[in-house]
Amino acid sequence: MKVALEGKVAIVTGGAQGIGRSIVEALIDNGAQVAIIDIDIQAGKKTAEEIQQSGGTCLFVEGDVSNASEMVSAADQVASHFGKIEILVNNAGINTRSDRVPIHRYTFEDWQRILDIDLTGVFTASRAVIPHIIEGHNKSGAEDATGRIVNISSIAGLVPLRLQSAYVAAKAGVANLTRSMALELGPEGILVNAVAPGSTLTRGTKALFYGDDGVYTENAASLLSHIPLGRPGKTTEIAAAVLFLVSPDASYINGTILPVDGGWTAGYTRDW
User: How far apart are CA 36 and CA 50, in angstroms?
Assistant: First the structure.
């Protein structure tokens, strides 16, 4: 898919790897200049350098989305470097703890860490970047909304799942926060939407899906039996949805939560 993003400046939080990197690459491939804000310095620098070597314009800025002051500093740095900011993709996040447990066995520390990054991180990054997007929109004098924010939620925020209370709560919060932001920021020239990925194959989830023999594990096979397409999503498929929502063609889409889940949330498939 090709969209017109030439000259646009975008920020992708958590853009060093996984879904975030695919989003960065999709934006770059369509003409945008991109800043990666990530806590992983080594991976962030590596990604930015590789993109620059391929001819793209990419800046890495170290930043922790759970730290409000760091987000203000990072946003100011990006705006100073590029002269403007028009797109924000709130992608940074962590998944639930590996040993999934019911809520009464969840530690406060695990709960707080996931909410700090997955939900509060969307707030802190948005609060820091939005003034720059509004300023640019006002200067442009454009009648249509020129700013774009895409938050990465999850199907876990749309359909409650067991044994992931913090992650489910955070991603549900992101979904409704997206709608609230859309109501508030539409008049300011910013469209706000969210993408809700289903099970997506990343480096971190390969062990979940595949055994040492290269075939699906028993747990993965059970999970995928509920997905009409019968496979996990690709990071590039999530990135394609984000790319559409930040494109000029999405000029009348605001407050939408777009599932990219192979049909998971459409309902379970059954042979009986």
Answer: 13
Can you tell me the distance from the alpha carbon of 265 to that of 267, in angstroms, rounded to the nearest whole number?
5
Active site residue 167: yes
Can you point out the beta strands (E) in 33-146? 33-38, 58-62, 87-90
Residue 103 DSSP symbol: G
Query: 216 in a domain, yes or no?
Result: no
Domain count across the chain: 1
- What CATH number is associated with residue 193? 3.40.50.720
106, 167, 252, 268: the active-site residue:
167
| 5, 172, 190, 250, 272 from 144: Cα distances, Å | 16, 29, 9, 11, 50
pTM over 0.85: yes
Q: Provide the domain limits for residue 238.
A: 9-199+234-261
Q: pLDDT, tens digit, for every residue of 182-233?
A: 999 999 999 999 999 998 887 766 665 566 665 667 777 777 888 899 889 9
Domain presence at residue 204:
no
Query: Cβ distance 267 to 188 under 8 Å?
Result: no
Please indicate, yes or no, if residue 86 is contained in any of the structural domains.
Answer: yes
